[in-house]
Amino acid sequence: MAPRMQKALVLPTKMGLFSLQDVPVYRPGPTDVLVKIESAALNPVEWKIQTMGIYIENYPAILGTDAAGVVEETGENVKTLVKGDRILFQGFFEPAFGTFQQYSLPERLQISPKLSFDQAATLPVAISTAVLGMYNQRPESTSAYLIHPWNEAGHNAYAGKPILIVGGSSSVGQCVIQMAKLSGFSPIITTASLRNTPLLSSLGASHVLDRNLSPAALMSKLGDITGGTAISFVYDAISLPDTQLLAYTALSPGGTLVLTFPKELLAEPEKASDRKTIVEVFGSLYIPPNRDIAVAMCQKLGGWLESGVLKPNRVEVVPGGLAAIPAGLERLKSNGVSATKLIVHPQEFA
Ligand SMILES: NC(=O)c1ccc[n+]([C@@H]2O[C@H](COP(=O)([O-])OP(=O)(O)OC[C@H]3O[C@@H](n4cnc5c(N)ncnc54)[C@H](OP(=O)(O)O)[C@@H]3O)[C@@H](O)[C@H]2O)c1
After folding, report:
1. Which residue, of 193, 218, 312, 343, is most buried by count of CB atoms within 10 Å of its CB?
2. Which contacts qualify for 57-61: CB closer than 8 Å, 24 or more apart?
3. Residue range 180-201, pLDDT digits in tens
């Protein structure tokens, strides 16, 4: 039986300061699963919510959307999971579903990982954002509508077609590289700090370009690599003004650019004559347009992890439990983390 109270990192007001508080543990309804969170990962969106006041209107809020843990209790109608199952899951921006706490009531879109809890917690948001932005087929979704690689027809569907992934060493970027490999894209070109070249090559990147080169130098290198072949799909995993402009410029007319942050930041207005489609992915498995593909992806995830098609991020465990999250978010904000996911252990305060 779970305890009645737990520790949670609460954001009391919009753009307020995080505070560690005692809050009640949620009681699972008939179809719910209560999870004891062993590992929770930090994401850039959390410092953005706190400093920009975006995405959440109801406060107090409990943030955090990446976690792994153990099933603690199940509702009477839950047939697929039992107490003690190890799972990873994506949280959502509502208190019962947040992961910056010791217990959460996630939607059951989880898989059972053989990874460590820390490795498993690096994946839910990153792989979802990659897959949803590339392959969601629902017309009302924000996606490039690529053929998904679940089956033979989709596997290698893009053989011989170049792809540019801006920010390949980010968590999202690492997953996009791995999905691009599954889809057969070639060459797979990415930008990152060059110290991350061995890692990104091991994930499937064929060319890693120094992200500190000037836009003109990057464009020139892209031309050399592709030999002038059109780049009709670009995924900007960073989506800052300068990366958006690079991604948009590199994209060929008629192509599709996926952004992970709003395109209002695009430094130059889009030109209709370019016929370039820009989509802003929302990497949540919880919203209706993403549900079908979420289920399909979760069915595949276990196999991908088992076979090594999908590898988790490198992990740095930040000591101090939930209380260490604000300082960890500061590190993300100041670009102090490279090709690594910061993880906390919420039970450290138990
Ligand atoms: N729309 C959504 O649903 C959604 C979901 C998840 C994330 N996001 C957004 O997507 C972005 C990435 O998130 P994340 O969690 O993947 O980030 P992350 O792992 O924290 O990103 C860190 C990495 O970003 C790279 N980087 C920073 N600036 C760069 C630049 N100008 N060019 C190329 N690489 C750069 C760094 O590369 P080096 O160390 O190699 O220099 C570093 O490895 C964030 O803006 C986040 O808010 C959106």
Report:
1. 343
2. 57/14, 58/94, 59/11, 59/12, 59/13, 59/14, 59/16, 60/10, 60/11, 60/12, 60/13, 60/95, 61/10, 61/11, 61/93, 61/95, 61/98
3. 999 999 999 999 999 999 999 9
* Cα–Cα distance measured from residue 23 to residue 34, given in angstroms and rounded to the nearest whole number: 15
Nearest to 112 by CA among 287, 299, 290, 292: 299
Is CATH 3.40.50.720 what the domain over 126-280 is classified as, yes or no?
Answer: yes
Cβ of residue 43 lying under 6 Å from some atom of ligand 1: yes
243 lines ligand 1 (CB under 6 A): yes
The CATH number of the structural domain formed by 5-123+312-349 is 3.90.180.10
Residue intervals of the chain classified under CATH 3.90.180.10 are: 5-123+312-349
One-letter identity of residue 124: P
Q: Whose CA is nearest to atom 12 of ligand 1?
A: 238
Ligand 1 centre distance from Cα of residue 186 (Å): 23
143 lines ligand 1 (CB under 6 A): no
| Cβ-contact 121, 42 below 8 angstroms | no
| Beta-bridge partner residues of 93 | none
Q: How far apart are CA 182 and CA 149, in angstroms?
A: 6
pLDDT one-digit tens code per residue, 156-174? 899 999 999 999 999 999 9
- Cβ(50)–Cβ(23) below 8 Å: no
CA 139 / ligand 1 centre spacing (Å): 27
Q: Tokens for 173, please give them.
A: 């970027």
Q: Give the nearest ligand 1 atom to 166 CA.
A: 33
Residues 1-49 pLDDT 10s: 889 999 999 999 999 999 999 999 999 999 999 999 999 999 999 999 9
